[in-house]
Amino acid sequence: MNTSSVINSLALNQKNLVLIIGDSIGENIDSSLVLARRLQSEQTYGRRVLYINTVQSAQVLGQRGKEVIGPEFRYRDEQGMDCRTLTRGSLSAVDEEVRAMFFGKHAVRTVVINSWEFSAEDYRTRNRVVSMLRRWVVEDGVQVVVFAQFRSAVPTVMKVQIGGIGKLAGLADGVFDIRERPLDAEQDEPAVEPKPITRIETTTKPQKEKVIYVDDECNFGRSIAIVEEDAVNPGSQMINFITEESHELPVPWPTRENPIRGKTLTSFLKEIERPARVVDDVVADNAVEQGVTLGVAA
User: Fold this and answer.
1) Residue 50 gets which letter from DSSP?
2) Contacts of 290 (CB under 8 A, 6+ apart)
3) If DSSP codes are grouped into helix, strand and coil, which group holds residue 252?
């Protein structure tokens, strides 16, 4: 794959949070280096690019940069690009340090993260990283570009991807697929003659266990996030937001550590749904005639 030509063709203007999907983490490292150098050349008025390396050591990344970009590459280039290498899974721990670089005479205005897979070590940490990147974009006005390896499907702009990029896809206003796919791949595949079916075997797939819990990190305002999660594959989730006015949650609330088992999200929500408020028509009419205001109990 001609990395430079593909990366240089990406239209990133007016994009706030960008996802770039590649074939592998190794290829994404090469592509992210090329993109960071391109963005560096486009910066004006002393603004800088911050390249965050979550995979390799600083020494290995520096050597790879010389191979991909050229011998002039420096790990920390005073001409407009800073590189930072973080311990795997520690991106959320450097929030304040990075945000301090967004202000001043030589402020960072674009952040490139070379691997989403190693930016967090578990589900909760990944949620904190998503919230952190949202602050960088919304509150600080910084452009963030995140590279990720292709899994089962390319994410859709502004849509949460279950079991893949997750909530980060819901924040992205730009998604680019840079995977290498030969145009003549279909023609090169040998023809396969269909074989007659002699017997059809049917198997019943075991039903995956579901757990239900309240995700405090996703709650906002008066809305409460109810999560249905696959107990075997925690990355597969379904989220529904409710309020205490519409539903009555059991006390104490179910948590990730102590969830409700054996129910689906649909059946659980129906079970805790508060009954609709109803006022008898005759009682209401009499109250109006007598000039009385009725209080309706939940």
Assistant:
1) E
2) none
3) coil
What would the two tokens of residue 43 be?
């910066």
Gap between the Cα atoms of 115 and 94, Å rounded: 16
Q: Alpha helix locations (H) across 9-77?
A: 25-42, 58-68
Radius of gyration of the chain (CA): 26
Mean pLDDT of the 51-76 span: 90
Rounded percentage of the chain residues whose pLDDT exceeds 70: 76
pLDDT at 221: 65
Residue 81: strand, helix, or coil: strand
What does the DSSP 8-state code read for residue 72?
A: T
Q: Which of 176, 173, 152, 172 is nearest to 163 (CA)?
A: 152
Length of the chain, in residues: 298
Q: In 194-280, which residue ranges form alpha helices assigned H by DSSP?
A: 265-272
- Distance separating alpha carbons of residues 193 and 195, to the nearest angstrom: 6
Residue among 6, 58, 57, 11 nearest 32 (CA): 6
Q: Tell me what percent of the chain is helix, strand and coil, each rounded to the nearest 5.
A: 30, 20, 50
